[in-house]
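Re: [help] complex structure
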Amino acid sequence: MKPAGFAYHDPQTVAEAVALLGRLENARLLAGGQSLMPMLAMRVAFPDHLIDLNRVEGLDGITVEQGVLRIGAMTRQRSIERSAAIREACPLMTEALTHVGHLQTRNRGTIGGSLCHLDPSAELVTVAAALDATIEVAGPEGQRDVAIADFPLGFMTPALAPEEMVVAIRIPLWPREHGYSFMEFARRHGDYAIVSAAALLVLDSAGRIARASVTLGGVGAAPLRVTTAETALVGEAPTPALFRAAAACCEGIEAMEDPQAPAWYRQRLAAVLTRRALERAWARATGEAA
Amino acid sequence: MNAGRLVGRDVARVEDAALIRGRGRFVDDIAPAGLVHVAFLRSPHAHARILRIDVAVARALPGVHAVLLLDDLRPHLTDTRLVVALPSPSYRLDLHRPVLAETEVVHVGEALAVVIAESRYLAEDALALIEVEYEPLPAVADCDNALAPDAPPAHSWASSNLAAEMTVAYGDVEAVFAATPHRFAETLHIHRGGSHSMECRGVVALHDVVEDRLTVWSSTQTPHTAKRLICDLLGMDETRLRVVTPDLGGGFGPKLIFYPEEVVVALAARLLGRPVKWIEDRQEHFVSTTQERDQTWRVELATDAEGHILGVRGDLVHDHGAWTARGVNVPQGAVAAMPLAYVVPAFRMTIRAAVTNKVPVTPVRGAGQPQGVFAMERLLDRAARELGLDRAEIRRRNLVSAEHMPYATPLKTRGGIPVTLDSGDYPRCQQMALDEIGWAGFAERQRVALAEGRYIGIGVANYVEGTGRGPFEHVSVRVEPSGRIMVATGAAAMGQSTRTMLAQIVAEQLGANMANVEVITGDTAAAPIGIGGSNSRQAVLAGSSAHVAALKVREKVLAIAGEMLEVAMGDLEIEDKVVRVKGAPGHSVTLASIARAAAGQPGFVIPGGRGPGLAASEEVVIDAMAYANGTAAAEVEVDIETGAVTITRLVFSHDCGRALHPRIVDGQLMGGIAHGIGNALYEHMRFDDQAQPISTTLADYLLVTATEMPPVRILHMHSPTPLNPLGIKGVGEAGVIPIPAAIAAAVEDALSPFDAHVCRVPLSPVDVIAMIDPVPEGSA
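Output below.
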């Protein structure tokens, strides 16, 4: 478990990093290293060049402006978890982060690293999908935006050209009074989720559901928005039966299989966690739960 | 139980000062100048013929010192196999594993070449440059299928996959079963994974060319065995080899085995004339360190109408792995543990050990006993349910009672020594656990919970464990001219406070200052003979030898001091580093001056009349095992939608005789309990149907961590064994033994509304859901 040889590069700016990406063959970016370093040590990744982003200026930071949360790619997961602004404006993300690895890994792990590693059960990617995030990507031609829905090309494959890098994520905020919940089922605290579910609800003045977001992690090759469930919810008065019916939409979704969990089990978990998340989000939207 | 000045008290551990400051010395901390590093090429196939190995490119890589195959080692070896099996008439195949595989590989991870390079990085680079042409052969992935008549052989030369078979029997089993209508049969699948000590294995070898001596530091529980085997294999004179066990980051069984890597690294140091280091990484650990894995039990219990046990019969199929790296002691220990807590008038169990294309199986903490207990306890739960008896009551009716002690069972140990339960009050121990967990009121709590839609359950399991396997452990105690007390032993410390334990026992007799006692464990240069760490034995055997040796030295100290101070021995006491007259502390002589007097002067008589030197060396022989016992009671809540099992309460009552250090006892038990929870719910060493391991990282193989530990309450009884002078029974493995059985019973109880039947461990959430609401085979 020792990495094969690679050349190490230490750019100071995004432009330098992008230039290195354009110039070097078989290069990988090093963010927090919580996934890449074990992959190097196990020799499942063999980059010839490692471009360390840890000293690149301007890649970290959290801002909330005009209803949009922006988080720099190199912002540590622990910083996001502890951000009062995010807890206030985007509590779904705060709740999801308590499930991300362990305190020690969150101290190093970054949001950009999670997005680009694109593990199917990654909590932060699920949250980004739930919140219709936009990914800011820098490349030789300048910067472009990628909608989160278009970001995963497939299993652990982000829609990035070899010379591109993620610099930030932008999240349009939900109204202050929305209800939210992030639930996941993992074998042990801090393990990869077998399935996770994110739910967001906004009620109108009559108490009906005005807007809903339902997202599953760990089921498909990338986080899935369950639009059938969202459609079933919007315009309806929230009841346990409604949530049960909406959650049932998850049972037919094609699910991954691995030695931990067969597909049928993931489908069941998806429905159970979606229902529980919706109930929790509703309780929060009505102020009945913290 | 009366505590001494040190023995029986929670004194500070002597290990802590170094370990807490990061100043321990583990095998990877040993880095002699000129060190080179080793990596092993390991088979990616579970079973394959080796057609060709080409190491030319690897050898040419800059920084690579050598790439060696068995053919390169053969001229320097007296044997190319490790002949390590414990004696037993049960073997049907000779499965001595090779130093390196040469013509055939029989499990993923089996080593077939070794690279020695300037760094481990380069060594791993070179591994990738070795070309091996394999011809894959059919693999045996499952112990049950291995014994089918049409099963492919796990070794191409073997006529079958039956590694060993034996029957453990007494009483007229057939008559007993024929005479009662109350018969209960179960088929149980019991899996245990590995031990996963925090520190993997490792070896450093240093050849001193000036004196032609080889020192081998190995993360082994048995340095004396390693020395014997390296001497044998390399044809070395014993005076030329020293094997040392440095600080160990856990052993838990697999490190008691002698491994190919130990002899290869030792030989490489001699061949290269450079110190050589091999540190096993976690991926290697998953495929090359021994494990315990699978057993299938087809068992039947006969009782009378009141639930009194009449007999037990059945057969056990055991996954032996590809080689005999220790013996048949795991299944034998499993079967021996099965009836032990209870009065079982007739018993017959057949054991068949099946060869599979997997890492060899050898003991992991518990060494088969958790499986035997699981089988017995599952049968008792089944009988209680069908007879309409309370599950604790059927146990109470059958437990060996205090009035029966000592209770001679018809069983014998693997060495032919009669199994006699020496002491204890098993029914009272069970009652303590039941009272603590609130067994009597549980049915009502369960009813209330169920009305709220919560599924809670309770379970209980008993065990009796043979501890302190003999015959002896060496301990020497010597007072040096400095006044320091040196203790050396063949016992090997692997993190279980062995040095503290010995320092306590010796200092108890020699001044009660543990800081004045230096304990050397696991060093063949310090102890001429030794057996090492296994079988919850070191406190029992080394502790007894230390106690007797310390008493002898004390006697001599007092005799010499008496003569020097001109007082009777009986008027003296040893306090810290001096011997003084009771009631007149100023009238004293130091241990240092006594030691100097005992060392003699040319032409002068040694005082005390007991000969020269202030030392004693002991190997107290204790053949019979000391039987410890205990009860685990678990309460769980099951989430019937996700299958998650939460252990809400766990009570462990036990009797290890006299506790030398109560906090260390608690710590040992707690570690065992965590391991038992892992075996019940988490740890699963998975292989696919081609015997490819598929859980080879700690993200896939789930060890219990602090966040999975429930509240645990440990209750103690102290029935000293008459078998050793300190009255102690071993405790290193106890915690693990009854836990899977108790948790399985509790889950089954929680799911009683669904008529669930738990007949396997570990139980994953998927397994739990499948018991409640089975998904048809083949459905999505």
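Residues 263-285 of chain A form the longest helix (23 residues).
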